[in-house]
């Protein structure tokens, strides 16, 4: 076995890659909507464009993850995904027509959405092989999100929202460079056994878990899609939006660290119940505030909500799904957390925001988080056969 000192370069390269991956996430989630608004698109049109990504990711996540498991590679798939992103972002930078942008962004999302579950997949595999904590790698995603949130905000304040796509090309190119040098972590099974996946999907605990994740994700994706629009309505500029992203990213770091040390001593379902309840409170406050700086303060709750939820959900998922189906399992989780929920929240959320206002929009988001909390609680209270974890 190689020493930890010799193995460290592989882990550090993956940390740097994870750091840059989240730069594109900042742009897509927070600054692409402003780019659309700058082109004169309505809230319902922006909601539709946001919903296209989750719709495409329903099959793109599974397709690329199945290919990853089938051909035992994550690295080569990531390189292909970034090449596709860069080419399509260039086309977006030259487009202003809604129909053309809708067509191109559909293709862009085909290459964008699978990056996150595959990045988590290679990080989990590397952490296990090198005997380091997965969170010690994932933390660099939070650092990257925080760094790019504030830097991109100030850059776009200087160069204008019309140059959003060129900033995206620059960040994706940096990620591609790191992807070329990270070490691949193939799965233990060369050929994917689809009957094995069907057996996994028949697990009642997994289905219940994914259903609750879907309910919670509806509110989370509604907030993600319209956070920058909300701040813009409250008079915030691109730099304030960057500070909001920074606040949320930094707030999750201490919770990642605490849960990586003590999380295994706590039962999973109570933590998921707690995170869902705090999500509901967060969305209620978002609907009540009338200040951009109030939104900044509320964003600090992100650590309690997403920080607790993400670490616990990944821990539960790795317990429920065998290692040989890791990429596909992460894709299934992402479909619920981003794809199906994003499809519904983008189309339905855009209509609610435009027709009924921000207050009612966030009431709906809070209701979905409360429903998820009730689902996790019912599973915890009525589970007949207690497992090794709560």
UniProtKB/TrEMBL annotation:
Where are the bilayer-spanning segments? 12-36, 48-67, 74-92, 98-116, 137-157, 163-182, 203-220, 240-262, 269-288, 294-318, 330-349, 361-381
Q: Where is the Major facilitator superfamily (MFS) profile domain?
A: 172-390
List the membrane topology term(s). Multi-pass membrane protein
What keywords are annotated for this sequence in UniProt? Cell inner membrane, Cell membrane, Membrane, Transmembrane, Transmembrane helix, Transport
This protein's major location comes to membrane
Matches recorded under Gene3D superfamilies: MFS general substrate transporter like domains
Q: Name one Pfam family in it.
A: MFS_1_like
Q: What is this protein called?
A: MFS transporter
Provenance organism: Paenibacillus puldeungensis
